[in-house]
Amino acid sequence: MKKCIVVLGMHRSGTSALTGVLDICDIKLGNNIMGESEFNAKGHFENLEIVNFNEKLLEELNSTWYSPNGVNEELYKELLNNTHLINKAKTLIIQEFGDNELIAIKDPRMCFLFDFWEKVLTELNYEIDAILLYREPLDIAKSLERRDYFEYDYSILLWLKYAIYAEKLSRNHKRIFLSYNQLLNDPESVLKMILENFNIDDENIDKKSLLNFVDKKLQNSQSDTLNDIKLISYIKKCIKLYKEIIENGYKEEFKKDFDEIFDDFNITSKSYFNSIIKTIHYNEFNKEIKDKKLHRKIKNFLKRNSGK
After folding, report:
1. By the 8 A CB rule, do 85 and 60 touch?
2. Residues 48-70, buried b or exposed e (16+ Cβ, 10 A)?
3. How many CB atoms lie within 10 A of CB 232?
4. What is the rounded CA–CA span in Å between residue 167 and residue 111?
């Protein structure tokens, strides 16, 4: 049976470095891959066709990658039953990956579009495995502040959304929880864990290339989010769960804990969202905005969706 590894993690969480490791293992990422940029010197390793398609799927959900609100369940049900989009996605996978039997997909949007791609890949006879990558949310927030001028509260709420959707939607599949620091400090052990857990042959892997790719100059997560910033309770709980899983493995009772966080988030995120956007995006950040187009898009989205 064919296999697809789906890399799940928030923007700026280290998923590019992790997917680069999979690329070194000759796991196919498709034909049209996003190259390097100012913020990813070695490449993003995202399939551009899938990223563009996911943007269209988010439009169907009246959402964006930077929306901190939960996914609209009614619109998502319609999406999962949209035969036209399902067939277009199948065609995309076939065009990008051909008859390759071992592939990987990395796009942070997959965290909350996983169900859609699960349906597509399963109908194409792919077995799906998932890697959930954790990086300290405060370090992600610092990175997003540099790149997109997001405030910390906003970015950490975004991180929570990505983290809980990734966990909930991937439960029916074999998966690995990893930390960004593990990847940087011991890439060989991380690679060994991936290969062993997903039953992948390692005979063609160039370990020298692996060690050269994982840049030791990349900064480990330096923050302790739980102690360094004030957090609402369910964000704290989610961080603790991820750290516990990475340290000691996933336990069945964690499903209930994650479900409680998921419910709390969907009940309260709108009011929390409305309370922070006035100070986050209705001002001009008191900074030079390099990407004014993105800034306008965010403001317009927030204006359309706040208070609903």
Report:
1. yes
2. bbbbebbeebbeebebbbbbbbb
3. 16
4. 8
Token pair for 16: 């590019």
Please name the helix (run of DSSP H) or strand (run of DSSP E) that holds residue 1, with its range, or none: none
What gap in Å lies between CA 4 and CA 110, rounded to an integer?
Answer: 13
CA atoms of 104 and 22, how far apart (whole Å): 8
Q: How many CA atoms lie within 13 A of 216 on its CB side?
A: 5
CA–CA gap between residue 244 and residue 247 (Å, rounded): 5
The reported pTM is 0.87
Structure tokens at 158: 């975004």
- List, for residues 57-112, the tens digit of each pLDDT value: 999 998 889 888 889 999 999 999 999 999 999 999 999 999 999 999 999 999 99
- pLDDT of 215 > 90? The answer is no
pLDDT band at 280 (very low <50, low <70, confident <90, very high): very low
First to last CA, the chain: 45
Map residue 261 onto helix, strand or coil: helix
Query: How many CB atoms sit inside 10 A of residue 231's CB?
Result: 20
The structure tokens listed for 135 are 């990086």
Angle at 224 between CA 221 and CA 229, to 5 degrees: 125
* Structure token pair of residue 237: 């709980």
* Residue at 248: amino acid letter: N
Contact 136, 163 (CB under 8 A): no
